[in-house]
Amino acid sequence: MRFLPLEKLINLHDGYRKTVKVDSLEVLLIQDSGALYIVQSRCPHRGQHLQAGTVTGPKIECPLHHFVFDLVTGAHEGGACEALAVHSPVFQGNLLGIMIDD
Length: 102
Ligand code: FES
Fold this sequence. Notes:
Elements: E1 2-8, E2 17-22, E3 25-32, E4 35-40, E5 54-56, E6 59-61, E7 68-70, E8 86-87, E9 90-92, E10 95-100
Antiparallel strand pairs: 1-10, 2-3, 3-4, 4-8, 5-6, 6-7, 9-10
Bound molecules: FE2/S2 (inorganic) cluster.
């Protein structure tokens, strides 16, 4: 496992959203009400970008067909769709990132 840096902590604030692509990995970083979420950037239903999704509490609603996913577990509300991949935020020095397999 190795640390993959995604963003400087100084850039984070409530309302922050950014899609970050590193090699073949593309994730969406979200800060809402002080909580950080790192999830796959595209909806598991039909691949819509989630950056424009509506975040309410720990949930995000896809802008295309309005499926709702839990940002902590990734589960689809209702369970009819594949779950969203979620990553645990990891902090190293002044950086936010995730741990990935080599
Ligand atoms: S593409 Fe997201 S709900 Fe259909």
